[in-house]
Design goal:
Blueprint lengths: L2 H5 L3 E8 L9 H10 L3 E9 L11 H13 L4 E4 L5 H11 L2 E3 L1 H12 L3 H16 L2 H5 L19 H36 L3 E7 L5 H9 L16 E7 L3 E7 L9 H6 L1 H8 L3 E7 L5 H14 L7 E6 L12 E2 L5 E5 L8 H13 L2 E8 L4 H9 L3 E6 L5 E8 H10 L3 H5 L20
Parallel strand pairs: 1-2, 1-3, 3-4, 5-7, 5-8, 8-9, 9-11
Antiparallel strand pairs: 6-7, 10-11, 12-14, 13-14
Helix pairs in contact: 2-5, 5-6, 6-8
Length: about 450
């Protein structure tokens, strides 16, 4: 699957097969948007129903003849199936139509190949392409499947062309994975630095075309590319934002998800998606005007589970509230009073204040605020608190002890207390340690 193949879809014919299994259903309108996003011009659409896919052609011999006639009639260059085809089905269909045949997975890979801009993004897309092509390699080389031989070779068969090409693929995949490991190590260093500086990370996730990038731009005053099309943003973007009460936070705009996102893409983008799993808060952006929004939410949650981000605190952000009538100009909370949902319009600015307020609440719900008194013998503790940017203010008493007002995450407080052999507990001017639930601390008993 070369890059030139990806960029020359030309006139396309769409094939939408309805199967009885709910999990196999795809949206025809979404396929049309995907084809348009990839640069194809939809000339004709074939819709049919089947109880199960035909093993050889997916649609059956009669429907193959019908599609072949439509391909000639409408001068189609590419036939796109709204389903996943096996390599054998793809070969048989290409032989019958005499044009390029691609399935939903290949179409999504096409778009990703067109949109990748950064070095890491291009590597990730190429890896997904090569992994997809491994099983389909025979398609392009059947006419060359002969043995290589020549003067100087000992007796016996040489490598066939297909074997040579497969070996080249494996070597390239291995090289890309090594390069991605280097990029991933740099990303981990940046992540560790943010953690050391106690900077919260807020990651934007959501179904493609939900308006994540438009909302990201409004909140960060950025100019990230945003358009009314699928996968307008591919490469992740990070911006620093000041949040009330919290202070500095990093907002991360990520690639949009889609139903049945190709497994190879999820695997290839694992390094990038790990940013989501490591985030302090997820803003799950939903297109509130989409009739399939509930299915889209399930699709996003499925991908989050694949990358280990299912347990990260999440705020559902119903975007495009200006297009629906049942939006609320308030923060929707759960039984414990924690924010769970807000309605906003990235286009008009409606609900943005509620979104910022809810974000601050969720980021600060595990934030401990208390005061410590530090004498000369606890210089290490004082240094660690400052390095973690946990000190909100400092003053001194008549004895020269430093009185520090702290604002720190519970987990960070526990880590510092452990590393200083309980010095933070010893110096805390509180009756109850705020990072230890239901555990009373008697300050008067400390010597």
């Amino acid at each position: 699957m070369s890059k030139s193949e990806f960029e020359t879809l030309g006139s396309t014919l769409l094939v939408h097969v309805e199967l009885p299994q709910l999990q196999s259903q795809e949206d025809l309108k979404e396929l049309e948007l995907l084809a348009d996003t990839a640069g194809g011009s939809v000339a004709y659409t074939v819709v049919c129903k089947r109880e199960s896919p035909d093993p050889s052609t997916f649609v059956g011999s009669g429907k193959v003849l019908e599609i072949a006639d439509a391909v000639k009639l409408y001068d189609v260059q590419t036939v796109i199936f709204n389903n996943k085809l096996t390599p054998a089905q793809e070969r048989n269909l290409e032989k019958a139509f005499s044009v390029r045949v691609m399935d939903r997975v290949a179409l999504i890979l096409t778009i990703f190949a067109q949109r990748a801009r950064t070095y890491e993004g291009k590597l990730q897309v190429e890896l997904a392409q090569l992994q997809y092509e491994q099983a389909r390699l025979v398609r392009g080389w059947t006419h060359l499947e002969r043995q290589k031989g020549g003067f100087g070779l000992r007796g016996g068969p040489g490598e066939t062309q297909i074997e040579l090409d497969r070996r080249a693929l494996r070597e390239r995949i291995s090289a890309i994975k090594q390069d991605l490991e280097i990029v991933a190590s740099r990303r981990e260093q940046n992540r560790s630095l943010r953690k050391k500086n106690s900077i919260n990370v807020v990651s934007f996730v959501g179904y493609t075309n939900a308006g994540k990038s438009t909302l990201f731009n409004r909140l960060t005053n950025s100019d990230v590319y945003a358009a009314n099309q699928l996968f307008a943003t591919l490469d992740p973007t990070l911006r620093t934002v000041e949040i009330p009460v919290i202070g500095k936070a990093v907002f991360a705009d990520t690639v949009g998800f889609i139903r049945h996102l190709p497994h190879d893409l999820v695997a290839a983008f694992k390094g990038t998606l790990e940013e989501t799993a490591q985030a302090d808060l997820l803003l799950h952006v939903v297109d509130s005007s989409d009739e399939h929004k509930d299915l889209n939410i399930e699709a996003v949650n499925s991908v989050l589970k694949q990358v280990g981000a299912q347990d990260v605190k999440t705020l559902i952000v119903y975007n495009k509230a200006d297009l629906v009538e049942d939006s609320f100009d308030e923060i929707i909370r759960d039984e414990q009073g924690k924010p769970v949902r807000v309605y906003v319009s990235a286009k008009t600015g409606f609900g943005i204040d509620n979104l910022i307020k809810a974000t601050a609440e969720l980021l600060s719900d595990d934030l401990c605020e208390f005061t410590v008194k530090i004498g000369n013998r606890h210089g290490k503790l004082r240094s660690m608190l400052y390095s973690m940017k946990a000190v909100d203010s400092e003053s001194y008493d008549e004895s020269g002890n430093a009185i520090l007002a702290l604002k720190i995450k519970a987990v960070d407080a526990a880590i510092i207390d452990s590393k200083t052999n309980g010095a933070l507990s010893e110096c805390a001017l509180v009756q109850k340690l705020p990072w230890i639930k239901d555990d009373e601390f008697d300050f008067d008993s400390v010597s």
